[in-house]
Design goal:
about 500 residues, alpha+beta, Heat Shock Protein 90, 4 domains, 7-stranded mixed beta sheet, 4-stranded mixed beta sheet
């Protein structure tokens, strides 16, 4: 019995309650499922098991009807006339006692949801309609805004404090993933309202752009006014362990923060060869898109602890402030995902930068071992940590150990370079990055230094570039004036061949 089956049997044994609901649902979905989803979203979240009757007996779901049930549920959840604001939930198939059941995990939402225009809440007896109970409705709104800092309203923040170019970019990204996406035909104000980035406090009557809206789309000055401690620190630390080899302070909006994290990843981490079926995919992109999204989406922005993304030899570590729902290393088999900033999370899903809740973690675990040779770790606490093991460029040894051992001093390197057989060229990490950097476009000396994270032309840089020119892997654009200030470099056909052999 796996962890998932054990967890479901435990829920069945406990019976229905605040966070568990059973539905027989043999051959078709029942209408009251959406009322339960709405109640769970508005309260503390929960699990709905389809194929279990009220007494906890496993009746199962008709296998032939399962695909249609899942399709009908997803369609209903994306219909604003059914659930508003829409919620994006996944349905998992589980075999139990020789029968198939469906599990729907519903996270607590930071929004107040309606089902068919009515507001539902959850108590021990089930779901109840509180639409006409003004005090209860106000209490839900107050609880959501107090619990989720992303919903804090800034009544003096206007549309002019957001970047229209970013809004347009997100509109286009949403259209790439869904050509019929409603944002495509919305103006800027309609879009931010649709994304719940502009809200009304039903207790005070104040309305305005939320913290989520400012973080996602705000101008830098507005972001730093609302959250002056906002920062993501990107660090490369492999050789200089006391300080760093490369660093980037990111204190801008979350859209461009994501861009800069991924650019840092592509600059400093290899993209290993991986086939899924007969198609090559980039598991580096799949893994670190999830990691980047995690440290931006699930951060507790009320805390001043700066988020960190640290590339070390053989691994990547991240840290970000967190509102924990448990402690210790998370077990993928029993882990229950909990959204820390549901509005920001949903916005990232709309533009195709995040997966459904929980599926991103499963994807990271799936590819992580293939990428770095060991399972990633996710550690829950006041500071949330992720550790992903990573290979090194060209399989080079630890540069710190290499320096300590003295096995690769300059004399040895020069002798080794001279003895290299051109048919079996092996590049150091710096050499490979230079060849790769000159592959797509010509590079000047200064742009190569930026690419490598060097402040000036070090002896290591000069030697690496000279060796590549000698091997004919890189060539000068102005060979007749080698010392020209306008000199640039490009990868030769031989350099491309070597890269192809290494990949």
């Amino acid at each position: 019995m796996n962890g998932s089956e054990h967890q479901i049997l435990k829920l069945i044994h406990q019976g229905e309650g605040w966070s568990t609901e059973f539905k027989s649902c043999r051959s078709q979905i029942t209408r009251d499922i959406y009322e339960t989803v709405c109640a769970f979203l508005n309260r503390c979240g929960g699990t709905i098991l389809l194929g279990i009757n009220d007494s906890g007996e496993v009746t199962g779901v008709d296998v032939e009807a399962m695909a249609q049930i899942k399709k009908d549920f997803v369609t209903g959840m994306n219909n604003p006339n059914k659930i508003n604001p829409p919620a994006y939930l996944s349905v998992d198939e589980v075999s139990l006692s020789g029968k198939m059941i469906l599990r729907i995990y519903v996270p607590e939402s930071s929004q107040v949801h309606r089902c068919n225009g009515r507001i539902y809440d959850r108590n021990e007896d089930g779901d109840f309609d509180i639409t006409d109970h003004t005090r209860m409705v106000a209490d839900i709104y107050h609880r959501k805004q107090a619990t989720y800092s992303e919903n804090k309203i800034y009544p003096f923040a206007a549309l002019s404090d957001l970047r229209s170019d970013l809004i347009d970019r997100c509109r286009r990204l949403a259209g790439v993933w869904n050509k019929d996406h409603p944002w495509i035909n919305m103006d800027d104000m309609e879009l931010i309202k649709s994304a719940q980035l502009y809200q009304t406090d039903h207790e005070t009557g104040k309305r305005g752009v939320t913290l989520a809206g400012i973080l996602l789309l705000g101008k830098d000055c507005v972001i730093l006014s609302a959250v002056p401690h906002h920062r993501t620190d990107l660090i490369l630390r492999k050789v200089n362990l006391d300080r760093y080899d490369d660093r980037d302070f990111v204190d801008t909006n979350l859209i461009e923060s994501h861009d800069r994290i991924m650019a840092f990843v592509r600059k400093h981490l290899p993209d290993t060869f991986y086939l899924e079926g007969i198609q090559r995919i980039s598991i580096r992109e799949a893994i670190f898109r999830e990691v980047a999204s995690n440290i931006l989406i699930h951060r507790e922005y009320r805390h001043a602890f700066p988020a960190k993304f640290i590339i070390e030899y053989g691994q990547v570590r991240t840290e970000n402030s967190n509102k924990p729902h448990g402690l210790g290393v998370l077990n993928p088999d029993t882990f229950t995902p909990f959204p820390k900033n549901p509005v920001i999370c949903k916005f990232f899903r709309q533009i195709g930068w995040a997966d459904e809740l929980g599926s991103g973690m499963r994807k990271m675990m799936k590819y992580g071992k293939a990428y770095g040779g060991a399972d990633p770790e996710m550690i829950e606490g006041d500071v949330f940590r992720i550790i992903v093991h990573a290979p090194e460029f060209g399989g080079t040894e630890n540069p710190v150990l290499r320096l300590k051992s003295g096995a690769h001093d300059e004399a040895h390197d020069e002798a080794h370079d001279e003895a290299h057989d051109e048919a079996n060229i092996s590049l150091t990490e710096v050499q490979q990055r230079i060849v790769e950097g000159c592959l797509e476009m010509v590079q000047s000396t200064s742009s190569l230094l930026d690419l490598l994270g060097y402040e000036s032309r070090t002896g290591n840089f000069k030697k690496a570039l000279s060796h590549l020119l000698k091997l004919g892997l890189v060539e000068q654009v102005l060979p007749n004036t080698p010392r020209s200030k306008k000199q640039q470099y490009r990868t030769t056909a031989k350099g491309k061949q070597v890269l192809g052999l290494q990949r």
